[in-house]
Design brief:
It is globular, with a radius of gyration of 19 Å. A seven-stranded parallel β-sheet has the order 5-4-3-6-7-8-9, with helices on both faces. Strands 1-2 form a two-stranded antiparallel ribbon. It is an alpha/beta fold. The chain has eight helices and nine strands. It has one domain: 3-Layer(aba) Sandwich (Rossmann fold), CATH 3.40.50.720. Helices cover 43% and strands 17% of the residues.
Length: 281
């Protein structure tokens, strides 16, 4: 049985109460990119918990196999995986074509790691080109490949895992700030064009989340400033009203909701999952 989420409802003439609403993705197929670690892996797991059949896409075959073996199967799903290296766009094109030839994908999770940290004044042209290709162009390839099937099914969910830098640029993430913003505007444009096809396009914007990328950011900042990692960690936590880092599963819950039938009227927007850190609405 897929997991239940609780929503507050206000019945006519009565007070508010909690009613269980089941997010059931049985019969839906989800393609999750970057799905062998961190946020991508958590999203794959929670989609599977909700009953979706999950297709994993990443570059490490051994890690893909292990992740696939560990995914839940509450509806008896048969999960599978494909390999692609997102630093090599042609491999994403080939993988997308191979998947589309065998599967009808209803839910696409665009999720790619990086780009590396660093000030924008020191970023090379190649760094921007690589990030643009890995993030925006690969997202576009996957969306173009699977939109026809989503339209035919009258059910499509494209969810892009980006960053809160879409709203407010983050310090020392010059290339990432630039490219993530481009992906955000690409997705809004795509949402407007696909809404009448029964397809929604939304972004999940994680804040500081306990992943390998966060550990790398903390380590790099400590190295450059000469401070202890614990000091850097405390400085970051002080900026978060919730007083803690998020977990990958907390980001995944937002993605699962956006992938659900209950989110059919939500498109072209950003869902921030950051413990309140982003200083604007």
């Amino acid at each position: 049985m897929p997991g239940a989420f609780l929503f507050v409802v206000n019945p006519k003439g009565g007070g508010a109460y909690l009613r269980p609403v089941i997010i059931d993705l049985s019969g839906k197929t989800a393609l999750v990119c970057g799905s062998t670690q961190g946020i991508g892996r958590a999203i794959a797991r929670q989609l599977a918990n909700a009953g979706a059949r999950v297709i994993l896409l990443a570059r490490n075959r051994e890690a893909l196999q292990q992740t696939c073996d560990e995914l839940p199967r509450p509806a008896g799903q048969q999960h599978r995986f494909f390999t692609a290296d997102f630093s090599m766009p042609h491999s994403v094109v080939e993988a997308a074509a191979a998947i589309a030839a065998e599967e009808q994908v209803h839910i696409l999770i665009n999720n790619t790691g990086g780009p590396p940290a660093g000030p924008i004044t020191q970023a090379s042209h190649q760094a921007f080109q690589d990030a643009f290709s890995q993030h925006l162009l690969n997202n576009h390839t996957l969306a173009q490949t699977f939109i026809p099937g989503m339209s035919q099914a009258n059910y499509g969910r494209i969810i892009n895992v980006i960053s809160t830098s879409v709203k407010v640029p983050l310090h020392n993430l010059g290339v990432s700030n630039t490219i993530r913003a481009a992906v955000g505007n690409w997705s809004k444009t795509l949402a407007n064009e696909t809404a009448k096809l029964g397809i929604t396009v939304n972004n999940v914007l994680p804040g500081a989340t306990t992943t390998e990328r966060l550990s790398s950011i903390i380590s790099n900042k400590a190295l450059k400033t000469g401070h202890e990692e614990e000091s850097v960690r405390k400085e970051m936590l002080a900026e978060i009203p919730a007083g803690r880092f998020g977990s990958p599963d907390e980001v995944a819950y937002a993605a699962v909701f956006l992938a659900s039938p209950q989110a059919a009227y939500i498109t072209g927007t950003n869902m921030v999952v950051d413990g309140g850190r982003t200083p604007n609405l």
